[in-house]
Amino acid sequence: MALSRHVISSPEAYWSAALRPRLSQMDNWKHNSDDEQALQMAELEVEAVSSLLPLLKTRRNGCTKVARLPNEILAHVIALLAGEDPPDTRFTLGTENRDAA
Questions:
Q1: Residues 33, 16 contacting (CB under 8 angstroms)
Q2: How much of the chain is helix, strand and coil, in % rounded to 5?
Q3: Which of 5, 10, 36, 45 is the most buried (most CB within 10 A)?
């Protein structure tokens, strides 16, 4: 990916510039492949970009004030809050426990 060395101020402008060459390649796929193959190739591109989003979100979350706290402090706070507000026993691993209701 050949991006210019100057800083692009807008994240939208940066990612648009980064994506433009790949979109151009995808246009070539449409013209040089059958529809099903082009669709499969496009789906691989979507999956690849989607797999990168958690990395960006992790970096974003690392910028929060709570992320700067030592793990020992976080563990202590969580232990204190767990005693104050225990989890709802009707739900186990995200699924409703129908017997508890």
A1: no
A2: 70, 5, 30
A3: 45
Higher pLDDT, 73 or 86: 73
Residue located via tokens 């100057």: 6
CA 96 remoteness from chain centre: 27
Q: What does the alpha-carbon distance between residue 13 and residue 30 come to, in Å, rounded to a whole number? A: 25
Distance (Å, rounded) from C-alpha 76 to C-alpha 42? 47
22 secondary structure, DSSP code: H
User: What is the number of domains present in the chain?
Assistant: 1
Parent domain of 29:
16-88
Give domain status of residue 99, yes or no. Answer: no
Three-point CA angle 83, 89, 90, nearest 5°? 150
pLDDT, tens digit, for every residue of 25-41?
Answer: 888 887 877 888 888 98
Give 44's pLDDT tier (boundaries 50, 70, 90).
very high
Alpha-carbon distances of 51 from 3, 7, 24, 45, 48, rounded to whole Å: 22, 25, 21, 10, 5
Q: Please indicate, yes or no, whether the overall pTM of this predicted structure exceeds 0.85.
A: no
